[in-house]
Specification:
With 131 residues, the chain is α+β, with helices and mostly antiparallel strands. The chain has helices spanning 3-9, 13-18, 49-65; strands spanning 21-26, 29-35, 41-42, 46-47, 74-83, 92-102, 106-115, 120-130.
Length: 131
């Protein structure tokens, strides 16, 4: 099965809540998009920081899954977010995850989140443990 199809055919329940849609997937990166809905916002109507982090965490976990040996799982053990700019309600945000390290015990991913217009929203670096 194609990696992109695999991720879209077996979505995490929380990814459905976010409205996340994977648009590209391979062992070396994952890209997804999400529409900023009012229920994902803070006041004034901009994407909540927790939603930004959850979006990035989902992409890093998905990228790790695409690199796992058969029978292994993963969990996030560390995440750091730099918030750079807002994403207003109605905007589409795009997350692009690339590897920093893909090891046997841990994997480290960087996710850049931007608006469809190209404005940077956040940069997230996370570490996934291989279980």
């Amino acid at each position: 099965m194609d990696k992109l199809q695999l991720l879209n055919d077996h979505p995490l329940p929380f990814a459905k809540v976010l409205g996340l849609r994977f648009v590209a997937a391979s062992e070396t990166g994952v890209t997804a998009e999400m529409v900023v809905r009012p229920e994902l916002c803070t006041r004034p109507d901009i994407l909540h920081g927790g939603a930004v982090m959850a979006f990035a965490d989902t992409l890093g976990a998905a990228a790790t899954v695409l690199n796992l040996p058969e029978g292994k799982g993963t969990t996030t053990i560390e995440s750091k977010t730099n918030f750079v700019g807002p994403a207003p309600v109605g905007a589409t945000v795009i997350g692009e995850t690339t590897p920093i390290h893909r090891g046997r015990r841990t994997m480290v991913w960087q996710t850049r989140i931007r608006t469809a217009e190209g404005k940077l929203v956040a940069v997230v670096t996370q570490t996934q443990m291989v279980l």
